[in-house]
Amino acid sequence: MSINFVKKSLSLKLVLFILLGTGSILVGVGWYGYFCSRSILRDELISRVDGIGELVADRVDRITLVVETVARDMGLSLFMHGRSSESLFPLLESIVMAHEEVAGLCVAFLPRKDEAPFAPLVYKDGGGLHSKDFGQGGNDFSSASWYRIPIESRSPFWTEPYFGYGGSERFVITYSVPAFGPEGDMIAVVACDLSLDWLADVMNSLDIPGGGKGFVVGSDGILLSHENRDLLNRESLSSLGLKAGDEGLLKLGEKMVRGERGIVAIEDRDDGWIVYRPIGDMGWSLGLFFPKTAVTGHLNNLLISQIALASIGMILLLFVAWAISRAITGPIRVLSCATERMSSGDFDFPLPHTSGEDEVAQLARSFSSMRESLIAHIERLKETTAARERMESELSIARSIQMSLVPRTFPPFPEKDGLDLFAVLDPAREVSGDFYDFLMLDDDNILITVGDVSGKGLPAALFMAVTRTFIRAFAKEGLGPGSILSKLNDEIARDNDSCMFVTVFCASISVKDGAIRYASGGHPPPLLFRGGSVRTLPPVKGPLIGPMPGMVFQEGVGRLEAGETILVYSDGMTEAMDLSGSFLGLDRPSAWLRDMEGLSCERTINTVLEGLRTFVGEAPQSDDITLLGLRVDNLT
Which H or E run contains 132? Predict the structure, then answer.
């Protein structure tokens, strides 16, 4: 065979290059694999075990986040419920039942001189739900860390794990937060208990290579999870290392307590490795042990497979390379031309006919399938675009219909001299879950309402429309604000399978003398301002509307002074966030209102909105914003 023939024969050059190149690679890979397979398998197993650790850490973070959220939200709810056992026990029971992670929830009120200790407690035990007053029966919890530390530090606190809760032997930890009253004074400590039974279930379900085991230690080094339950909350790695005279185990315990991560080799009868890493925000650390047999058990099979596959591959490659080299050049050239035409948008071109099951035939068929898929994708894209345009049109119509449900003509009652009223509804999405409404009950009294439905989008918008209709109907029956909200709650709670709820502020205001009767269903109290002074109406008791029927809503009374403006708002104003995640709060709007003496309600609300948008900046709107302002100048 002459050198010139080799130079001219593309097929022969492909065969020679494939055989020489592939043969050299196979020999090098086999030689390298012989010496490095053990290290590779070890690293892969370590990576897999570390991935298991990531999953465990994510699970711990999710569970503890739920508990922290429940405790904080319960602390905020005390602002509305106070020390009423009639409302607190049902609320605690509903929260504990709704969160399977929560083992118990307790509200320990700070003692008062004229009242007995009061600490309503709801907990799970024996498969059931139990309730009691933890402050009765001689229970002195004043020195308990879950109660004492949040009071002293005025900040949340995680306890160390302990056995026993509610008369059981469950292994639990407690997250407690201080709760504050309307004046900023501390009124109670909310304690939420998390059973560590789920941690044992998580560790038992781990698929660690080679039948390995996992364990968890707390911030003080005590074992929280281990296959030997007798060691829980009694022993640490350091104490076990001291008893066994194992310096390596002692050092491992110290590293895990410091929150370090890494891998250590165990050279005793449990010959293997331990991968350790911190998990959660409570100073816990996870250790995963897997034996070295998980590596050596597969090493020999891997080496034999490599040698066998390399030998068979070289033999087959000699025959396949020649066939491929003869068949590959022609079809590839045609496919190259077809690719150029496809890139220009021309899909009507012939493809080379190829038979057989080799790579070139598969490439040609794949190319043909790709062309058909592209054509079908383009058609689907057209249909999807049209469907999206229709949906956007329908949402736009829904927004228009919803906005027509709230009054938008201002001034609404031009015949009422001295009555200034203006309102704005700014949805976070196409449609809103907020609403406002007002109507004249008679010649001297006007009813105003502002509501905020849980959630957003179309479900919240429908819920808002139903709520507004009920309020108007009950108002025309001559009911007061408290009775309106009570009947509204009963109607909404009936068949409320979706468990939605709404907060509502409802007030009847006399345009003659400024007398105010009002009630609130979990809604923030409005602001009243005049002459640089800003105040709020005294809070009244009233739960969220919708979760449970038969609730009573307290009515409050007040008076609107001449020239004084009442501003009712939804929490979309106070909870507006900037790019850093900071809330607007109530202090900034209050400061703005002090400088708005003499402005109309429309100018006042627009000025507040301008300040809000300046604070938010480029951050997306996170919630619906509703503002309603009313002022009566000619009061007798």
Answer: strand 128-133
